[in-house]
């Protein structure tokens, strides 16, 4: 038997009445932050006297953005978003790795540059996934 207080509390956490109008764009911004942090892992930036990877700055915003998602749409949808984003991030890295391993025409001289930037994208993706899963679910 529910009391009146219980039903008020249940209505506060009932996400069925939430407005999901902006859920897709909020989720896509989150995914964009994860993908951008993967690509920017090799870019070193100066923050005052410190040299840090550019992905550190972007990755920080993904935690902030996931907190916004949790507050707006609840923890169950946020967990789904995390898993779906990880799958998309893996597919993204796999496609980049696949295209990067394809042969280039003889007149194109930028293969070494691409190898330097995206050659280790699978390693960064797995490291990012592992770190993110540990921080998000522990």
Can you offer a commentary on this structure?
There is one protein chain. The protein has 138 residues and is mainly alpha-helical. The protein has one domain. Helix content is 72%, strand content 6%. Helix 2 (23-39) packs antiparallel against helix 3 (54-73) and helix 4 (75-101) runs antiparallel to helix 6 (121-137).
Main β sheet profile: 2 strands, antiparallel
Mean pLDDT over the residues: 83
Spatial order of the strands forming the largest sheet: 1-2
N- and C-termini, Cα separation = 34 Å
Sum up the structure in keywords:
138 residues; mainly alpha; two-stranded antiparallel ribbon; 6 helices; 2 strands
Summarize the structure.
With 138 residues, this protein is mostly helical.
Task: Outline the fold blueprint.
Elements: H1 4-13, H2 23-39, E1 44-47, E2 50-53, H3 54-73, H4 75-101, H5 111-118, H6 121-137
Antiparallel strand pairs: 1-2
């Amino acid at each position: 038997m529910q009391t009146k207080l219980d039903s008020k509390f249940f209505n506060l956490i009932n996400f069925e009445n939430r407005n999901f109008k902006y859920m897709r764009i909020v989720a896509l911004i989150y995914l964009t932050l994860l993908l951008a942090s993967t690509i920017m892992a090799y870019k070193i930036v100066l923050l005052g006297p410190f040299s840090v990877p550019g992905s550190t700055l972007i990755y920080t915003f993904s935690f902030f953005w996931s907190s916004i998602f949790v507050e707006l749409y609840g923890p169950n949808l946020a967990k789904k978003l995390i898993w779906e984003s990880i799958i998309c991030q893996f597919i993204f890295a796999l496609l980049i790795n696949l295209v990067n391993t394809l042969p280039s025409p003889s007149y194109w001289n930028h293969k070494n540059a691409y190898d330097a930037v995206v050659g280790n994208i699978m390693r960064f993706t797995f490291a990012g996934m592992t770190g993110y899963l540990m921080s998000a679910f522990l």
